[in-house]
Structures are given as C-alpha cells and as structure tokens.
Design a protein that fits this description.
Chain lengths: 416, 462
C-alpha cells in the first residue's frame, strides 16, 4: 500500500485547522464585527438615554416571545420603499439596542409592529387579542383567550402586560423627537440611497390623528362597493345595520358610533375615515384607496339603508329653540363651542374631541338618550342630575338644528 | 488510485451496533410524525384560525416552535445518528466508541432533549429565536448530546490517519465538530447580545443549522449510498474534497443574508450575499460530482434507498440555486417575509435533507438482522413524498410572489391574507400525501419479510 507523501498528510492537518478557522472567521466577520459597528451606530445616532421597559411591559415582552408573535409580525422596518411607505422610518440600530433577545423576525403574515405603539386603543387590542376576527374579519391571527378570564372585558394581568408591551413599540424613536430625527438623518446606510425619506416618522395608515388635512374624496362614490367594503372593514364594530352593535363593539369604550342615528356631512365622514377618531378604537383607513373611501361615504350616508332605522327622526319644535340655546350656552358651549362646532375653550384638553354638531346631526331621541346617560369613555357625562327634563329636551332640540349642510340638505330635498 | 478513497471501504468489517441503528431509525420516524402533525395543525390554523382556541399549547406560535425543532432535532438528528451507527464502522473499519455510550446518547437525545424540549415550548418556556426555540436549559443538553456524539463517532476515524479518509468521513467529522461550535453560538449568543447585533448571530445560526449540521450529514449520506449501491467509485475524489472545503468555507459566511436591507452594516450584508452566490456555484460542482458518480444509474433507480438519495441530490441543486438567487438584494426586497421563503425552507428540509435521511434509513435497514423491510411500501413513500412536496413548494412559491406583489402595490394588509387563503388550503392538502408518505415509510420499516444481511455482516456482528 502506497503511503501518500508526508506533505499531503500535512496538508490535511493544515486544512483541518483552517476549517475551524473558517468558522471563527465567520463569527468574527459576520457576528462580532457588525456588533461593534452597530454599537457605534447606536451611540452616534441614538439618544443618551432610552426609557427602559416597566415590569409590566417586560412581562408583556416575554408573553409576546413565548406565543411566537415574532414569527408572524416582524419588528424591523427595512430600508425599502415599500416598507417605508407602509410602516414608517426604517428601524435604526439604537431603537432596539436593549431588546434581549431580538425579535426582528423573518416572516410577515401580519404587518410589521416596529411602530405599532399608538396605532390602536387599548380596548381594541384587548378585543383583538381575545377574538381577532371580531374587529378584523379577514385576520388569521389566533385568539389568545387564555390571557383572559372569559371575555375581552375580563383581561388577566397577562393580557394587560402584553398590550402594555405593544404600546412600547416605536416609543423610543417617538420620544427622541426632532433631535432624534436630525441624528437619524445622518445615518449613511448605503441602501438609503434612492430612498425617499418618509415625511412622517410613523405613517402607519391606521394611526389616528386628532387633526390633519383630508384629501378630497371622489364625489358620488360607488355605493355597491361601499357596502362591500363596509361589510369587510366596518361591520365588525359598527354592526351590519350600522347601529354600532357589531361583534367587536362590546369590548370597546367608547362604543362604536351608532351611524344610523346620525346624519353626517360628507366632509365629516371623510375626516373620520382619513384621520380616525383619536381617543377611540376607530383607526384611520389611509391604506384604502380614495375611491374606496368615497364609496364608504356614499354607503354610510345613503338614506336607503337607514330609512327604517331613522324612523324617529323628527324636526324639533321651533318654539323651544331660544330656551334650548340658553341651556346650551350655559352648560355645553365650553366643550362643544358657542356655534356647536366642537371647538369650545375646553375642547383641546379632552382625549376624545367633543362632537361638532354642525357637521353631524344627532336625531331626536338619540340626543335625549345621550344627555341622560352620557357617553362612557368620553368626558360627556350624564346630565340627568343637573338638568331638568324640559331643559334636556330643549337642548336636544337645539343641537339637532345646529347641523349645517344646506347644500346637501337641498340636494336631498330635491331628490325626494 | 493508491490510498485515495473513492468509495466507502467495504473490507475489514467491524461490528455494527444495529440495535442503535434500529432504535434511532424508529425514534426518527416517531418524532417526524409528531412534528408533521404539529405542522399540519398550524397549516390549518392559517385558514381556520380558531382551531385550538383557548388551549395555550395549541397556539400557532408554540406549535411552530415544536414543528421546526422537532424536524431538525427529532427527525433529522435521529436519522443521522442511525446512519452514523451504520456507516462509521464501514468507513473506518472500527467499531464506534461504546454501545453503552450509545444508549445514553439515545436516552439523552430523545427523552431529555426532545421530550423535555417539546413539553417546555408547548407550555410556554422557549426563546423566540429561529431554529433555536428550545430554551437554554435544553440547549445545554443538546450540546452535551453533540459532545457524546463526537466521542462516539469521531475516534474511529483517527485510527486510519486523516489522509486516507473518504469524503463522507470528512463530512461526518466536520458536521459534528462545527455543530458543537455553532450550536452554542446560535442558541446562547442572542440571549446575551441584544438588538440587531444579536440578530447577526441569529442569522449565522439560521444558516449554520442548515449548512454546518444538516447539509454535511446529508451529503455524507449521498456520498456514502451512491457508490455502495452502484458498486462503483465516485466520479472524482478531488472534486469531492474541493467541494467539501468550499462548502465549509462558504456556508458559515451566508448567515447575514437572512437580514438583507436591515440595519445590520451594509458591508456585512454584501459579504454574505457574495458568499451566497459563490455557494450556489460550489453546489453545482458538488452536485455534478454526485450525479456523475451515479454512472448511469438513472433518475429513478430500482433501489429505494438510492432513489431517495438521487432525488435528494436534485432537490439540493434546486434549493441551493434558489437560495443564491433570493439572497440578491433586488429579489430579497421583493420575496422576503413571504411564503416564497417558507417554500424554500421546505424544499431544503423536507426535500433535500429528509430525502437524504429517508434514503439513509431505507439503505441501512436491510442490514439490520431481524428487522422487517417492505420495499414496496418504501417505494410508495417515495412517490407520495415527491408528489406532496412538489405541490407544497410550487403552491407556496406562487403564494409568496402574490403576497410580495400585493405588499408592493400598497393594498390593505388584509388583502394579502384573503388572497393567500386558497394557497394555504392547498398547502394543507399537500400535507396529506406527505403525511401518508411518512406513514408508509414507517410501515415499510416495520412490515414485510425479515431482512437477511449478507453472511459476512452476520459474522462480524456476532
């Protein structure tokens, strides 16, 4: 048997050592070295101090990890145009520098959650975790009922912790403010080239905004499409009959609006759809095409579907108006504004904006009912103990006639 | 040819621990069927998401952890151990270190790692790291198991001197040594290194799990079974060694391609993408050597073990080219995060790796005295698995392209869910032939006539 040359034997030994060297090289090149670079980046671009998770938020993170949330929801906005348009500014090194272990994720069945904080209300989250399809009919998220004691209104501490954690996602970057964005602009990540910086840090299409420019929606939207869209996107909360009693409504405070007992101007509906309703579970719908939003407006205000439900709409008796106005000015104007435009001096301090009666009309019995019971989850209290029955009746009749959409009203009169 | 080894040595038979081949083979198939069951449940949950609601252990996330860990550490590792007990004495002419050690390894791996690991992740004790979901306490046991495997299988090789090792031997030594290094790196480092730096280590491990553990052992099987069944030496010893060293150089450098377009430094990403492209070229070289080694045995050889192995070679080529392709930035920006990648990973683990593992079991089984072996059922398993895998991968690939297109278009997120639903239903249906195939494989190893190994082996075993 020929023995191979000694040099050949040595070559195998060298190769074996080199093999271990390959592994060490890979860890150094793709592990240790980028870790140092990332630490430098984080130091250079991040704020000196990042708010740590509270014990509740930290427990929520453990729940998020153990249930595998990160396997359907990434926590990284990539440096790509599609990601930036949908989820906001790309995730920088410092934003997740305290995440142990990281949950960047490699698969998206649900949307990215890197900037999920502030896009939904707490009760929406609880309802969604308990019964996802009650608020998002097309969702394929598993229900996490074991975090609740029998209903979305009975969250265990674990559910509260998880929601607390969700609210932290993107928080550090938001808190860094303009100063943080100025530093972020100095990041010279090669793949930033050619990317248009997003005008806002978190353009999440569902993120509610108190105010904001609303683009003009196409007039005369496609009502049939509106009905189809309503069933898929709105009915879960607002109910198939628009009475605010969908399967997801029960857990939400304030409850979803009973659309059937209101008349809205098109502008008011567009505002609610485009900006959402801050302080409530109503998200914004900026991810729907404008034509679809126009179709929804057409459907929601179309009298054909609501004629039965609005049976109690009555014009108020004119004689009471002066009395109603006096009661209104004494009790309601500080929030709802002297002209009923929802712009009283106290309005800005309220989490949920007071109703602007000039763009939405509450029909008779509904206004009376709300005066008696108030609206849970808002600063609208019950007036039963402070106003007499006559006073409430008078103010109800007063606010109904504040509605000003003369053009719209004339058009409807003409149609009839 | 001198001492250059161009085929597994067939002389100087050493005793083979056939009872451990048998035990690991059955453990592999039992853990496989459980892992497949987990996979089927989560595939149904994508279109019937209320399935298992209210039962924490049946939550999608926990079952997914159990699914992939079960496939890698239950099915593939057990099948690889079965193959090693069959092959190492034949490659080295010496017995494995100790049958007693083998029983400890078997118990540790299947009770302490798989049993405890599954119970823990299903009851909510886990880490959210891909291919590393078993909690750190189980990781310690896995590393202990790998060390036992090193002690069990590596010493026999050194009795012969490194220079005369056949390529399968190199892959076996490499796989065990590198897994012992990479496993703690990938399972522990991200628990210690926070944020995207931790993700860099995760990326390394996601690829090392496949590249340094699964792939080398699967290639050891392919290089072993082909020459033994055809009775002819491999095409080129030189190419086999060139491929070996290139693979072990390039695989560890691929990891970061799982985080392309992320915040991880661009140079790191580009290095990984370059390595991915070179890896694809290397695989072409390796596969060419393997296919030429068939010496005209055909794509569908009569021997069931070899038939699995040949299809594994073909899947290896396809999945590697696909992998190189999807590492490129333009492709990655589009298909990443979609079901395309899920199709890719199934082509790798269920196609390439599982076909190699099934080939190893089908090849080794008739050599176990007293075992039953039903070639017809094994052959049926092959066709069922081919059909199921083909449907699944094509379905998920198309679904991924569709999801990518919808995400790019700015459509509401839920449209990508609604559009995916029919594809997800088809994917669940594809699991029917796959599950049936694996059941047929198990039945093929439990029924049929009692095997009669060649007389020489019987003497050696006695």
């Amino acid at each position: 048997m020929n023995q191979p040359a000694r040099v050949l034997r040595m070559s195998y030994l060298v190769a074996s050592l080199a093999g271990v060297g390959f592994f060490v090289l890979s860890v150094a090149w793709l592990g240790v070295w980028p870790a140092r670079r990332l630490a430098e980046d984080a130091k250079r671009t991040g704020p000196g101090h990042v708010v740590a998770l509270t014990p509740s938020e930290a427990r929520g993170r453990v729940i998020y990890a153990r249930e595998g949330c990160a396997y359907c929801h990434t926590q990284q906005v990539r440096f790509t145009q599609a990601d930036i348009a949908r989820f906001g500014a790309p995730t920088l090194a410092w934003e997740t520098r305290a995440d142990t272990p990281h949950m960047m994720g490699t698969r998206r069945i649900g949307p990215d959650l890197a900037r999920a904080g502030g896009t939904r209300s707490e009760d929406w989250h609880l309802t969604h975790l308990y019964a996802p399809r009650s608020v998002v009919p097309a969702s394929v998220m598993p229900p996490y009922r074991h975090l609740f004691a029998g209903g979305s209104d009975a969250p265990r501490q674990e559910a509260r912790d998880l929601v607390a954690y969700l609210e932290t996602l993107g928080r550090a970057r938001e808190l860094a403010g303009d100063e943080g964005e100025a530093r972020a602009a100095t990041v010279s990540h090669t793949h930033m080239e050619g990317l248009t910086p997003s005008p806002v840090l978190n353009p999440h299409p569902a993120r509610p905004r108190r105010t904001g420019e609303v683009p003009a929606l196409p007039a005369n939207g496609d009502r049939a499409r509106g009905e189809w869209l309503y069933a898929r996107n709105c009915a879960a909360c607002h109910g198939s009959t628009l009475e605010g009693n969908g399967p997801g409504a029960g857990g939400l405070t304030p409850r979803p609006t009973n659309l059937a007992e209101h008349t809205y101007t098109d502008g008011r509906l567009a505002q609610a759809l485009w900006n959402g309703v801050s302080g409530t579970a109503m998200p914004a719908w900026r991810d729907l095409p404008l034509a679809d939003l126009g179709a929804l407006v057409e459907y929601v205000r179309d009298p054909r579907i609501t004629s039965q439900l609005r049976h109690d709409r009555t014009r108020p008796a004119q004689g009471e108006l002066a009395f109603g106005q006096r009661v209104y000015e004494a009790n309601c104007a500080q929030c709802h504004g002297a002209q009923g435009a929802g712009d009283g001096w106290a309005a800005r301090a309220l989490a949920v904006a007071p109703t602007n009666f000039r763009v939405q009309r509450l029909w008779g019995t509904a206004a009376m009912r709300i005066l008696q019971t108030g609206i849970e989850g808002t600063m609208m209290a019950s007036w039963r103990s402070r106003l007499s029955g006559e006073e409430m009746q008078a103010v109800a009749e007063y606010i109904v006639q504040l509605y000003r959409d003369e053009q719209d009203l004339r058009a409807r009169e003409g149609r009839r | 040819m001198g001492t250059v080894p161009v085929a597994p040595r067939q002389t100087g038979r050493a005793p083979v621990e056939t009872s451990l081949v048998y035990a690991h083979g059955l453990a592999a198939l039992v853990t496989l069927l459980l892992s497949v069951t987990f996979g089927i449940i989560i595939s149904i949950q994508l279109w019937a998401p209320d399935l298992g609601a209210g039962v924490p252990a049946l939550g999608w996330g926990r079952l997914r952890y159990a699914h992939t860990q079960g496939i890698m550490l239950g099915w593939l590792a057990n099948a690889f151990f079965a193959f090693l007990y069959h092959a190492v004495p034949r490659l080295t002419g010496r017995p494995v270190t100790s049958p007693g050690l083998g029983r400890w390894l078997f118990g540790l791996w299947n009770v302490a790692v798989m049993g405890a690991g599954w119970v823990l992740v299903l009851s909510g004790v886990s880490q959210p790291l891909e291919w590393a979901e078993f909690p750190p306490v189980v990781d310690v046991l896995v590393v202990a198991g790998i060390v036992l495997a090193l002690i069990q299988f590596v010493p026999p090789f050194f009795s012969r001197g490194l220079e005369s090792l056949y390529v399968s031997s190199w892959y076996i030594i490499g796989a065990l040594v590198f897994t012992a290094l990479a496993y703690p790196m990938g399972n522990i480092a991200p628990e210690l290194v926070p944020g995207p730096a931790g993700a860099a280590f995760s990326g390394l491990w996601i690829h090392d799990a496949v590249g340094l553990f699964v792939t080398p052992l699967a290639l050891a099987i392919l290089y072993f079974v082909i020459p033994v069944v055809t009775g002819k030496p491999i095409y080129s010893h030189f190419l086999s060694m060139l491929g070996f060293w290139l693979l072990f150089f390039l695989y560890p450098l691929n990891g970061t391609h799982h985080y392309v377009m992320s915040v991880i430094p661009m140079d790191t990403q580009l290095a990984a993408i370059t390595a991915s492209a070179l890896l694809g070229l290397t695989v072409i070289l390796v596969v060419a050597n393997l296919l030429l080694s068939l010496h005209g045995a055909g794509v569908f050889p009569a021997d069931p073990g070899l038939r699995f192995v040949v299809m594994s070679v073909i899947f290896y080529l396809v999945v590697s080219i696909q992998g190189s392709l999807q590492a490129f930035m333009a492709v990655n920006a589009f298909v990443h995060f979609t079901d395309w990648v899920i199709g890719h990973s199934h082509l790798a683990m269920l196609g390439f790796a599982s076909f190699a593992a099934a080939g190893a079991l089908a090849h080794a089984w008739p050599h176990i005295p007293g075992a039953r072996y039903n070639a017809r059922l094994v052959s049926l398993a092959y066709w069922l698995l081919c059909a199921g895998l083909l449907i699944m991968v094509v379905d998920l690939t198309v679904a991924g392209l569709m999801q990518a297109q919808l995400w790019q278009s700015g459509a509401p997120w839920t449209s990508s869910l609604e559009a995916a639903r029919p594809y997800w239903i088809v994917r669940t249906l594809s699991s029917i032939p796959i599950a049936a195939g694996f059941i047929a494989l198990l039945a093929g190893l439990l029924t049929g006539p009692v095997t009669r190994p060649p007389a020489a082996e019987m003497r050696a075993a006695a």
